[in-house]
């Protein structure tokens, strides 16, 4: 659900430093919000502080949130920690492979250009007509 940024209350956080969120700001600008911010029923932030700050920096009025139905301070802290611990950055090889795939998609060879031409042609010729 969408919630106004100003209605999200920030409690004492485990994360003390935001770090440089420039890349996150650029990502939100380019792709939008890919992961929701977690809040409790009282609109108190549980997880997603960096995303929230990046959205504010962009001047967004609302963000996508998920309400986690818990009153337990222990569980809120566990969720905050879990979201930040149970993630794994891509390895350098995985990043390189991804960049190479993007490059090939943006710069297809002659064989792929021919295949893509025929795909587009057949889609136009055989697309279902709407009534």
- The averaged pLDDT comes out at 91
Distance between the termini: 35 Å
* CATH-defined topology of the largest domain: Conserved hypothetical protein from pyrococcus furiosus pfu- 392566-001, ParB domain
Strand order of the largest sheet: 1-4-2-3
Proportion in β-strands: 5-15%
Instruction: Report the strand count.
Output: 4
Q: What's the architecture of the largest domain, going by CATH?
A: Alpha-Beta Complex
Verbal overview:
This protein has 131 residues and is of the alpha+beta class. The protein has two domains: 1-87, Conserved hypothetical protein from pyrococcus furiosus pfu- 392566-001, ParB domain; 90-131, no CATH class. It contains five helices and four strands. The protein has a four-stranded mixed β-sheet. Helix 1 packs across helix 2. It is elongated, with a radius of gyration of 21 Å. The mean pLDDT is 91.
Distinctive features:
131 residues, alpha+beta, Conserved hypothetical protein from pyrococcus furiosus pfu- 392566-001, ParB domain, 5 helices, 50% helix, elongated
Fold topology:
Elements: E1 2-4, H1 22-31, E2 37-39, E3 45-47, H2 49-58, E4 62-67, H3 73-85, H4 92-106, H5 110-126
Helix pairs in contact: 1-2
Give a summary of the structure in a few sentences.
This protein is α+β, with helices and mostly antiparallel strands. The protein folds into two domains: 1-87, Conserved hypothetical protein from pyrococcus furiosus pfu- 392566-001, ParB domain; 90-131, no CATH class. It has five helices and four strands.
């Amino acid at each position: 659900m969408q919630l106004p940024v100003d209605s999200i209350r920030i409690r004492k956080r485990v994360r003390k430093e935001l770090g440089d969120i420039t890349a996150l700001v650029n990502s939100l600008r380019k792709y939008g919000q890919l992961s929701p911010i977690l809040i409790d029923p009282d609109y108190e932030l549980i997880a997603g502080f960096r995303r929230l700050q990046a959205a504010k920096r962009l001047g967004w009025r609302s963000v996508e949130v998920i309400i986690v139905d818990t009153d337990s301070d222990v569980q809120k802290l566990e969720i905050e920690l879990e979201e930040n611990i149970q993630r794994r950055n891509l390895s350098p090889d995985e990043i390189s492979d991804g960049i190479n795939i993007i490059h090939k998609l943006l710069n297809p060879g002659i064989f792929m250009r021919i295949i893509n031409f025929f795909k587009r042609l057949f889609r136009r010729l055989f697309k279902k007509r709407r009534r």
